[in-house]
Amino acid sequence: MRQPDALSEAPLPLFADARPAGGPALPSYLRDHRKRLRARFLEGGAGAVPDYELLELILFGAIPRQDVKPLARALMDRFDGLAGVITAPESHLRKVPGVGETVIVALKLTEAAAARLTRARMLNRPVISSWDALLDYCHTVMAHRAVEHVRVLYLDRKNCLIADEEQGRGTVDHVPVYPREVLRRGLELEASALILVHNHPSGDPTPSQQDIALTDRIRQGAEALSLTLHDHLIIGKSREFSFRAEGLL
Length: 249
Description:
alpha+beta; elongated; five-stranded mixed sheet; 9 helices
């Protein structure tokens, strides 16, 4: 049987620092640290704490009675920052000593909440006139993925979002995309327009020749079906490439 790590987790209530029956009390210095950090966050917001302390705050609920600072530092180093930690695949997270199910749930809840909050900014609004919100959403859900993902945003006649669907995922530098399936789904949804989005895990959003050729195939097919391809966005680590803005559509 595997022995627990120094930072191993216990099945405890979320955000509970109290001692369970028969369990050890949280040391006073950790209790005070957590109290000060929570107060600083509540008073000053996210800007009052650096990323590693935001991660500590997330981990407090998953590991209520241990010092989570070493684990927060280890995760930040391993995954190159807070965004990388939150979006890291579960299989990669499990390789870090001290990470178990409750830590993974806390991180993935944070990821899901961030995605839904940014997506909510686009709902019931024309996507074209809320372009910054669209870019925020795409970066939130795709910029730090370890492999390529393709999403298609389907829009109605008013350019409002009616569906946001993942069409495929692949490797670090390739993902299979089938134009027929992309367009068939658009017809099923009675969409009037679509936006393609995919990420480059390398961080460089410069399109490949395959990206350009695929975009042109989908554009031609969409036009034949009276659908409009508004854009193809390639999401990198810190910036994006827009086919429309660069004159490729």
